[in-house]
Design brief:
The chain is of the alpha/beta class and 538 residues long. The chain has 18 helices and 24 strands. One adenosine-5'-diphosphate (ADP) binds next to helix 1.
């Protein structure tokens, strides 16, 4: 019961065994002579949310830019007009769309991927920005739904990542258009905020709008989408959009690593989740008992109930943003002093902070060699950690030139390479695509199990939490004011407690075992809420 089944090993990022025939006819865009190539585009459907699922660097944002009219596709030649694009898509569902786009009959609205760049181009107060965007007279509703009341009078440049994300989503939803594009709407958001944003985006489709969304949180993508495209290929080299699939089938295909109707295997193993009934119970040795702790910042107070940690287990940490999760982890790591209580132990702790900095002069290989050169050579670490996270490809790169996702993978690797008793990982999935999230989850699980070590992992991605956790610590309270952390509890109890506060129920997919959010008000949702079983009983 390791959380997943691996049918074929070893594995190596993504390997395409066979490409579809006549692919070159479907070539949409090529960046320069030896640049990235995009094949095919997603469909756009009135009244539907079309989800896009695929790794980083596979062409998702390129497709969004083309459909939003921001990038004229060169059709892998020297095309310079939308007329040729319309011709190329003759007979395709997109022909009509491109005609309207060319004639400016439609105005697409885009929520960009990199919300951190917004303050560079938009100045002023949140209220003014949203008032300007409010073409549908929904200001009050949307502000309430995304819980923006408290920040309306803040300057855009003062906003945190999660606040920027919600403001950007609100600004897009408030616009009056037919086509809406959301590029990674869940980054920086906690689970409640993710599902609230998803609900709001779904409402657009319910009103007859066409929506396209790129998303790496599988639970959110599942909740959000009516149909999905899997994008596969070789990141940085080429990407191919699959035919559209039903959401459930599409995500299962992704987890299987195999597209049956196109006969393409894009991952050599499949991913499966463990049922609650098959999870191991706490039988291992106690690693440590930690005491009750208090941290008082004046404006924010955190109370932590003491608890026990076992060897070989992974404890997930869940709760909203601003509730004290990072503060708790910092106290255990010894970088923050508790106001009351003491962390006095002989344990060796390895800590991956939430906000990672690339303040190292040197290459990835030099950085990791300094931590433990022998592990870089060990076949165990190659198989369990380095290869799955794509680290050898980064060895020669300078640490301070890495992208967000690359830096995250290096930071997680550095943390897990250290010899320690307790591993603390604060939001390891940030900036990672789905494939990398699954690889990181699997690495954490296997290393803790096989080395009989303990990990605490702060995480918002429900599938990752489900995949890695033996138990949960649940944070409750009022974000920014006070937080309370429970002692570690069983998955059922913990998830029930956590999801009840979020107001969302989950069931399990019969084929892959993955958790799926129930649509609000559905039969299952009402049944489970009545029974108090928010976490998919099985
Ligand atoms: P995704 O959204 O799936 O992460 P993108 O569409 O952003 O992928 O990028 C796909 C590939 O195209 C990447 O390898 C990226 O480096 C490359 N690319 C993106 N924009 C440009 C550009 N303007 N010029 C050259 N290459 C680009
Ligand atoms: P989470 O990780 O759950 O998002 P944090 O532990 O980062 O939450 O923060 C909890 C609260 O404590 C927030 O309101 C934050 O602004 C506040 N806080 C965090 N660090 C400090 C500090 N050094 N001084 C004052 N307030 C802080
Ligand atoms: Mg945090």
């Amino acid at each position: 019961g390791c959380g997943i089944c691996v049918h074929k090993c070893p594995f190596n990022a993504i390997t395409i065994v066979n490409l579809p025939e006549q692919l070159s006819e479907d070539c949409v865009h090529r960046y320069g002579v030896n640049g990235f190539v995009l094949y095919r585009l997603p469909v756009i459907k009135e009244g539907m949310v079309v989800g896009i699922l695929g790794p980083n660097g596979i062409g998702k944002t390129t497709a969004v830019k083309i459909l939003a009219g921001q990038l004229l596709p060169n059709l892998c030649g020297d095309n310079d007009s939308w007329d040729n694009v319309i011709k190329a898509f003759r007979g395709n569902e997109l022909q009509n769309y491109f005609e309207k786009l060319k004639n400016k009959e439609i105005k697409p609205v885009v929520k960009p991927q990199y919300v951190d760049l917004i303050p560079k181009v938009v100045k002023g107060k949140v209220r003014d920005l949203l008032k300007r965007a409010d073409e549908r007279g929904l200001f009050d509703k949307v502000v309430k739904e995304l819980e923006l009341e408290g920040i309306l009078d803040r300057e855009i440049r003062q906003l945190s990542g999660g606040e920027l994300q919600r403001v950007a989503i609100a600004a897009a939803v408030l616009r009056d258009a037919h086509f809406y594009f959301f590029d990674e709407p869940s980054s920086y958001l906690d689970i409640r905020q993710r599902l609230k944003a998803a609900r709001l985006i779904r409402k657009l489709a319910a009103e007859g709008k066409s929506v396209l969304a790129v998303e790496h949180d599988l639970a959110v993508l599942d909740y959000l989408s009516d149909i999905i495209h899997v994008v596969y290929g070789k990141p940085g080299a080429y990407g191919i959009f699959s035919m559209p699939k039903g959401t459930r089938v599409g995500i299962n295909i992704f987890l299987d690593g195999y597209l049956p109707d196109e006969n393409v295997r894009f991952r050599p193993y499949e991913i499966r989740f463990t049922k609650l009934s098959e999870r191991k119970s706490q039988t291992g040795e106690v690693l440590v008992e930690y005491p009750s702790l208090v941290k008082d910042y004046g404006s924010f107070r955190l109370e932590v109930e003491g608890g026990e940690l076992y060897k070989g287990e992974v404890v997930g940490i869940v709760g909203p943003n601003g509730i004290g999760k990072t503060t708790f982890v910092k106290m255990l790591a010894g970088v923050e002093e508790p106001t009351e209580g003491k962390v006095e132990w002989e344990l060796k702790v390895s800590y991956k902070p939430q906000y990672i900095k690339a303040d190292y002069e040197g290459t990835v290989f030099e950085l990791l060699s300094k931590i433990d050169a022998s592990k870089l050579m060990s076949s165990f670490y190659k198989t369990e950690l380095l290869n799955p996270l794509g680290i050898p490809e980064l060895y020669d790169r300078s640490v301070n030139e890495l992208s967000g996702g690359e830096l995250q993978r290096v930071a997680v690797t550095a943390c897990l390479l250290r010899d320690a008793d307790l591993y603390l990982l604060d939001e390891p999935s940030a900036y990672l695509d789905v494939e990398q999230r699954l690889a990181v989850s699997r690495a954490i699980r296997h290393l803790m199990e096989k080395n009989e070590k303990t990990a605490l992992v702060v995480e918002h991605d429900v599938l990752m939490i489900d995949y890695i956790s033996d138990r949960l610590i649940v944070f409750e309270g009022e974000p920014g004011k006070f937080g309370k952390a429970t002692k570690p509890m069983g998955m059922r109890e913990g998830m029930n407690r956590f999801l009840a506060s979020v107001g969302i129920t989950f069931r399990r997919d019969p084929d892959t075992g993955r958790p799926r959010a129930n649509k609000e008000g559905s039969v299952k949702d009402r049944e489970q809420k009545e029974r108090g079983e928010y976490y998919y009983a099985d």
